[in-house]
From TrEMBL:
Residues annotated as binding Ca(2+) 1: D689, N691, D693, V695, D700
The protein's name in its UniProt record: Cellulose 1,4-beta-cellobiosidase
Residues annotated for Ca(2+) 2 binding in this entry: D726, V728, D733
Provenance organism: Pseudobacteroides cellulosolvens ATCC 35603 = DSM 2933
GO biological process: cellulose catabolic process
Domain Dockerin: 683-750
Length: 752
């Protein structure tokens, strides 16, 4: 028996090594043609994907031409329905079409993407009545934030000083109107919630909103409501939905919009490349209208540089402290959001808010560079160019300040602790008097746990480095790329791993203008994943960084190889008739049935789907239309079995991230013969060796214990702990681990 086991193990090892050896030349060929299929280049791959996204039969766009968040409708992440769309989606659309213009010389798709953006995502003048009643000497009335949804509604405080808005008059002078020119962050494209627009209940591409109730309010705990509050739904006798969020004596029917700053910034980033590429082609005049739109958007986007209530950026800012004078409430970062609103009929007031919290993943040096240096994109309003020039430096400083000892970028900073200007914790590190926050804005899950925020933010920094050679950007990128290289594992077509979840410890040194290396700030990769959109962004980042080193420093061939191998792996192994996808198991979808959505005791109302809103209701109770979804039976069956349902999603942003990586390689390395790839090191996976150190010991037991009782797909669950592949980490897995406890790779044990 002993010899027989050894024989089988030897066969398994030989087979695995043979497969690994054969896979290497496929992934790292010496020409683009053999990388994918006969005669195909990266440009061809991009054009093929562009055709798939624009094929009406594939369902990426609505009948109006608005891109959906995903083809599939059963989808809960930031949008809570797949056929919603976000300003993020619009910005990806603009970015994708800019690349198409570069590769084909056809800018009609880019122009259309901006037309769709302006028509549907940017509220029109008629969507913003009575904003002329805005008192720029007092931006808004103060409402304290809370940590939990149960801390709401927050009590309106009319006596708390709030700051002066020194931007409104400059914008009105430049553009001749009171209306804002920014994208509202989320739209219900198919009117699934049935709110319609302006309270009509029927119109499509409906303006809705969700997140309103503190750091712990996840997408599973929101109460979706219409942007126009007409008291037709919600608690009709007490402010509609408004009384869930703000406690006050009386309520006005009003409208309100919110902006996700990084999305508008991405649209401007896309405009930078469109200007450069169209100019190279002699076709700049064909996109001149879009240049004006991007510059105008950048002008208004300065509201995200302001503290929420336009209070001074200072350590001792409190609810009762002096209001800001305008400039002293600007932090010059791309913060989480800004918002504005007014009554539907004039009552002599309106309001605007900035944001006190800034996340590293939202920063976009390319946008600041474009708006401060490119003549076609310089905004018209007074002070805009200098504000964006200052923002460029401030963003780069922030990223330096947050770079951990290992290389990843930590969370962000905040001028309003606990969203109510509480005193900072003792000993907290600061950046221009703003407190370090390892998980700014939301905590379920922690906002900087997701590796995707690393590559979203730093892809822009890599572009900026490539374009300018800025030494600050180079040093940031070099340290980060050196950190990530060992974590990118390409095993064969469609089989790859990249970081998924990160864990943070310590804090950065207080910023004094010089990066210290942050010896007390650390990051650990706690789980690996295979998100194809994040992988596409990683490949794109590596392409621009490698090209930047070739242009400005010493070519980093390893970064180039890894980016190319990762992209090739997905093209070879994740394609289908609609684009690219990879199966994922959603253990968090148990929250459809289990997650209570907080409604205060005694508060009742109805939403437009006909659901009664009341204390104790669950996520699915608020969204009964999900029971008619094509995937409902799949969800219900999986829940009854105690496992996460499996999906192959086609997210719009996933497709674009991959397309932009294809375009990056096509543009940056058009004639190169790629160097020999880094051959994946043959390895043996030892059953139960969850941390990959070659021995099964208490470290593996601890990893399994952290995920015990949870389904695959839930936040923080290590998929490797599911040793019997039944979708749940349970006693069966613990028994398997116990069977092999103490074994090493040299022992005669079963491999998997």
């Amino acid at each position: 028996m002993f010899k027989k086991t050894r024989k089988y193990v030897s066969i398994a090892l030989c087979t695995f090594m043979t497969v690994s050896t054969l896979a290497a030349p496929i992934l790292g060929s010496n020409s683009y043609a053999t990388s994918f299929s006969s005669g195909m280049t990266y440009e061809d791959a991009f054009i093929d994907l562009h055709e798939k996204l624009n094929d009406p039969a594939n369902g990426y766009f609505s009948q109006e031409g608005v891109p959906y968040h995903s083809i599939e409708t059963m989808m809960v992440e930031a949008p809570d329905y797949g056929h919603e769309t976000a300003s993020e989606t619009a910005s990806y659309y603009v970015w994708f079409e800019a690349m198409y213009g570069k590769l084909t010389g056809d800018w009609s798709g880019y122009n259309k993407a901006w037309d769709i953006t302006e028509k549907y995502y940017i509220p029109s003048d008629k969507d913003q009545p009575n904003l002329g009643d805005y008192d720029q000497s007092k931006c808004a009335s103060f409402v304290p934030g809370g940590a939990e949804p149960s801390d709401y509604p927050g009590q309106l405080n009319l006596n708390a000083p709030t700051g002066k808005d020194n931007l409104h008059a400059a914008l009105k002078s430049a553009y001749g109107k009171d209306s804002m020119y920014l994208m509202h962050w989320i739209l219900d494209v198919d009117n699934w919630y049935k709110y319609g627009n302006h309270g009509d209940g029927t119109s499509r591409v409906s303006q809705i909103n969700t997140y309103q109730r503190g750091e712990q309010e996840s997408c599973w705990e929101t109460v979706p409501f219409p942007c126009w509050e007409t008291y037709k739904w919600g608690n009709t006798s007490k402010g509609g939905f408004g009384s869930l969020f703000v406690a006050q004596d009386s309520y006005a029917q009003q409208w309100r919009y919110s902006v996700a700053g990084d999305a508008d910034a991405r649209s401007v980033q896309a405009a930078y490349w469109a200007v450069k590429w169209a100019k190279e082609q002699g076709k700049l005049s064909s996109i001149s209208k879009q240049n004006d739109r991007a510059a105008k958007m950048g002008d208004y986007l300065r509201y995200i540089m302001y503290d929420k209530y336009m209070k001074p950026i200072a350590k001792d800012t409190s609810v009762t402290s002096t209001a800001g004078d305008g400039k002293n409430s600007m932090h010059y970062l791309i913060s989480w959001y800004c918002a504005w609103g007014a009554p539907t009929t004039s009552q002599g007031w309106a309001w605007k808010e900035g944001s006190s919290a800034s996340h590293q993943g939202y920063q976009n040096p390319m946008t600041a560079y474009a708006l401060s240096t490119i003549s076609e994109l310089k905004p018209k309003a007074s002070g805009a160019v200098s504000d964006w020039a200052k923002s460029l430096d401030r963003q780069l400083e922030m990223i330096q300040w947050l770079q951990s000892s290992e290389g990843p970028i930590a969370g962000g900073c905040n001028n309003s602790w606990n969203d109510k200007y509480d005193p900072y914790p003792d000993g907290i590190s600061t950046f221009y008097d703003m407190a370090y926050d390892w998980q700014p804005v939301w905590h379920d899950p922690p906002s900087n746990r997701w590796y995707g925020f690393q590559v979203w933010g730093l892809q822009r920094t890599a572009e900026y480095y490539y374009e300018t050679g800025d030494e600050r950007a180079y040093q940031i990128m070099k340290k980060w790329v050196d950190w990530v290289k060992p974590y990118i594992k390409v095993n064969g077509p469609g089989d790859f791993e990249i970081p998924s979840d990160l864990e943070w410890d310590g804090q950065p040194d207080t910023w004094d203008g010089t990066y210290t290396g942050n010896p007390d700030l650390h990051c650990e990769v706690t789980s690996m994943g295979s998100d194809i959109g994040v992988a596409g962004s990683t490949a794109n980042l590596l392409a621009y960084y490698a090209a930047g080193t070739q242009k400005h420093h010493t070519f980093d061939e390893e970064a180039y190889d890894l980016g190319k191998q990762l992209l090739d792996c997905i093209i070879l192994g994740c394609a289908d008739e609609k684009g690219y996808t990879k199966e994922e198991q959603r253990g968090d979808y148990s929250r459809f049935f289990d997650q209570e959505v907080y409604i205060p005791s005694g508060w009742t109302g109805k939403n437009a789907q006909g659901a009664t809103l009341k204390s104790g209701m669950k996520f699915i109770d608020m969204r009964p239309a999900y029971k008619q979804d094509p995937n409902w039976d799949n969800l219900q069956t999986a829940y009854d079995a105690g496992v996460g349902p499996k999906f192959k999603y086609h997210r719009f942003w996933h497709q674009v991230e991959l397309g932009m990586a294809m375009g990056a390689f096509a543009i940056l390395f058009p004639n190169d013969v790629p160097p020999p790839p880094i051959t994946p090191t043959p390895f043996v996976k030892l059953k139960g060796d969850l941390n990959g150190d070659g021995v099964i010991n208490m470290a593996d037991v601890m990893i399994l214990a952290q995920s015990f009782g949870k389904a695959i797909g839930n936040p923080g669950v290590n998929e490797k702990a599911d040793l019997n592949n039944d979708g749940v980490i349970n006693m069966a897995d613990a028994i398997i681990l116990a069977q092999y406890f103490g074994k090493t790779k040299s022992a005669e044990v079963v491999m998997f």
